[in-house]
């Protein structure tokens, strides 16, 4: 038990060091370079079959700097007639010592005008007004949500600080910002798909 706890502590420290290193490297990338890379990602996505065929997509909304800018992706998805869902953080309705105090759901944007009306939060990220959440379709749902038990995502676009590939399985591993919001959401979404007798749907990782 002591050895396992020590190993977990070492892994946690290593992840934090990597986050700090990546933050320094990302800070050195010019705005022009970041925008150029974001354009490449957006244009590539438009011909990516899982995206083209998806009817319901989740897209993270970007910080002003330090990661891929997703504005063009959101606009293209809405213009293409896709149902677009974006992150919404809220208190866990089932508080428990074993669960995070705050969790994430995905809520639907109504249209371009709705998207453009979002106000930036303290990190500069366009954010859903909590007073409108009860009017919106939500993936995980809730007692105040306008949702269907069959609501699910065809594709999830999610950010990451760093990625690597597991040498034994080939699975791509993601390092996030350490809050576990996406891990929690993806696990619940996959459980929902399993309950509906459906296979897990693609998750597309977008590097900073």
Automatic annotation (TrEMBL):
<protein>
    <recommendedName>
        <fullName>5-formyltetrahydrofolate cyclo-ligase</fullName>
        <ecNumber>6.3.3.2</ecNumber>
    </recommendedName>
</protein>
<comment type="similarity">
    <text>Belongs to the 5-formyltetrahydrofolate cyclo-ligase family.</text>
</comment>
<dbReference type="InterPro" id="IPR024185">
    <property type="entry name" value="FTHF_cligase-like_sf"/>
</dbReference>
<dbReference type="Pfam" id="PF01812">
    <property type="entry name" value="5-FTHF_cyc-lig"/>
</dbReference>
<dbReference type="GO" id="GO:0009396">
    <property type="term" value="P:folic acid-containing compound biosynthetic process"/>
</dbReference>
<dbReference type="GO" id="GO:0005739">
    <property type="term" value="C:mitochondrion"/>
</dbReference>
<dbReference type="GO" id="GO:0035999">
    <property type="term" value="P:tetrahydrofolate interconversion"/>
</dbReference>
<dbReference type="GO" id="GO:0030272">
    <property type="term" value="F:5-formyltetrahydrofolate cyclo-ligase activity"/>
</dbReference>
<feature type="binding site">
    <location>
        <begin position="15"/>
        <end position="19"/>
    </location>
    <ligand>
        <name>ATP</name>
    </ligand>
</feature>
<dbReference type="InterPro" id="IPR002698">
    <property type="entry name" value="FTHF_cligase"/>
</dbReference>
<feature type="binding site">
    <location>
        <position position="67"/>
    </location>
    <ligand>
        <name>substrate</name>
    </ligand>
</feature>
<feature type="binding site">
    <location>
        <begin position="174"/>
        <end position="182"/>
    </location>
    <ligand>
        <name>ATP</name>
    </ligand>
</feature>
<dbReference type="GO" id="GO:0005524">
    <property type="term" value="F:ATP binding"/>
</dbReference>
<keyword id="KW-0547">Nucleotide-binding</keyword>
<keyword id="KW-0067">ATP-binding</keyword>
<feature type="binding site">
    <location>
        <position position="61"/>
    </location>
    <ligand>
        <name>substrate</name>
    </ligand>
</feature>
<dbReference type="InterPro" id="IPR037171">
    <property type="entry name" value="NagB/RpiA_transferase-like"/>
</dbReference>
